[in-house]
Amino acid sequence: MAQGDLKILSGTSNPALAEAICDHLGCTLLPSKVSTFSDGEIRVEIGANVRGSDIFVIQSTCKPVNFLFMELCLILDALKRASAHRVTAVVPYYGYARQDRKVAPRAPISAKLVADFLTVAGMNRLLTIDLHAGQIQGFFNLPVDNLYAAPIMAEYFKGIHSDNLMIVSPDAGGVERARSFAKRLEGGLAIIDKRRDAPNQAKAMHVIGDVTDKVCVVLDDMIDTAGTIVQAGQVLLENGAREVMACATHPVLSGPAIERLEASPFSQIVTTNTIPLGEEARCCSKIKVLSIAGLLAKAIHNIHTESSVSVLFT
Q: Which residues participate in ATP binding (predicted)?
């Protein structure tokens, strides 16, 4: 049974994605106002009645991460105080996800703290895409739906299917993701083995698997500074690959990423619109952006109507 009227509200991180989701659902965005006071504090105001409604807030916590995260928390608090029946935070890109465990004796587990903030702010459910670490779902004591962009990206690569297709994991941690993707496309699997022989020495990269004369797709969950993924592409060519492409859900693209990708051996870099591209990235002819608006719209519809979300995983 549906829980109140379905309403979509967007933060300022990715309004184009929110509009696309509304187009799929046949609804309009709730009016809202986000501004800053002269001292930098964020001001949020919801411009319509939400009492008893089932609200979905679209907000990626990408750059500027802290500002957009705080904005999301204030929106959640405003909706809670306005008596919304249920509030689902739709966070296509979950910031701080790479800080999911203690890596030093006196370090925080930032991904857990973010989960606590969102819960206290008033979120009743989280909908996200390709969490960097799946165990982050356990940081919440409420429902979490972690969708995968793989079906959308696999559909794209089916259009350029090659009998010599090889899916490549850029490190050992991404093997499960790459294996699942290779199975979808009926392609081969290779792994880049990185190791540092001594402190402060460059990483030696070895390819596990025969990539000779293969069309290789290096698959990762995100591209940040692009250093590792570009090195992987170069090593694959050195090992006889015919062509190399890159594929990642989240285009973080910070620091020298665009410069590196422009100069990289990749013929294409396929990503999604979980994070909006900056002006420099939009000018990069190698980058192809696929929309996840349809996937999120289906998930939002199923959550609202209390239907199965797991059907979207197949």
A: 39-41, 98-99
* CB proximity list for 46: less than 8 A, separation 6 or greater: 9, 30, 31, 32, 75, 78, 79, 82
| Residue ranges covered by each domain of the chain | 6-147, 150-290
Phi-psi region of 288 (alpha: psi -120 to 50; beta: other; left: phi over 0): beta
Asked if residue 95 has pLDDT above 60, the reply is: yes
Q: Please, which residues have CB within 8 angstroms of residue 58's CB and are 6 or more apart in sequence?
A: 8, 9, 10, 11, 14, 17, 18, 21, 90, 92, 296
Active site residue: 80, 194, 286, 288, which one? 194
**Known catalytic residue: 194?**
yes
| Contact call for residues 210 and 180 (beta carbons, < 8 A) | no
Looking at residue 2, its pLDDT comes to 53
> SS3 for 61?
coil
State the amino acid at position 236 in one-letter form: L
Q: Are 262 and 284 in contact (CB under 8 A)?
A: yes
Reference 272, options 123, 66, 56, 62; nearest CA is: 62
Closest listed residue to residue 254, CA positions, set 228, 278, 233: 278
The whole-number pLDDT of residue 199 equals 55
Q: Domain 6-147 has what CATH class?
A: alpha beta
pLDDT digits (tens, 9 = 90+) for 55-81: 999 999 999 999 999 999 999 999 999
Q: Residue 161 in contact with residue 167, Cβ under 8 Å?
A: no
Rounded Cα distance between 142 and 265, Å, is: 43
- Please, what is the angle between helix 15-25 and helix 293-304, to 10°? 60
- Find out whether 136 and 111 touch, Cβ atoms under 8 Å: yes
Hey, what amino acid is at 287? I
Residue type, 290: L
- CATH for the 150-290 domain, from 2.60.260.20, 3.90.650.10, 3.40.50.2020, 2.102.10.10: 3.40.50.2020
Where is 238: in which H helix or E strand?
Answer: helix 227-238
Tell me how far the alpha carbon of residue 178 is from its chain's centroid: 16
